[in-house]
Amino acid sequence: MSILDMRGLIDYADVFILCSASNRRQVKAIAHAVRQWSKHELKVLAHGVEGLEAGRWVLVDFGEVVIHIFDEPLRGFYNLDGLWNDAPRLELPVIEEAEAPL
Asked: What is the pTM of this model?
């Protein structure tokens, strides 16, 4: 997983979160879990979701935070990590087991 600080590079989001899954079913499950967790725990709804039906690259847009969930081969193909190589990387937050959403 990569967390990119996009402030100063683009004007439509502050943070990109890039993650991968082993297969399409996992991509869809991650997208569903993220949306459910944000709705129930944070009381925040996604502004939009793209690619859920195909499950190869799902984008979940929360406005300031955009989450990209890739089927593993597509992450390397589109290489957003390389495209935004100049974006500072942010530390992954440490989540205690009791706080974990799933």
From this structure: 0.88
Task: Quote the strand ranges of 25-71, DSSP E.
Answer: 48-50, 57-61, 65-71
Residues 17-74 pLDDT 10s: 999 999 999 999 999 999 999 999 999 999 999 999 999 999 999 999 999 999 999 9
- CATH number for position 59: 3.30.460.10
- Domain assignment of residue 39, given as a range: 2-82
76 assigned to some structural domain: yes
Q: What's the token pair of residue 68?
A: 């990209």
In this structure, is residue 20 part of a structural domain? yes
- Longest CA–CA span in the chain (Å) reads 36
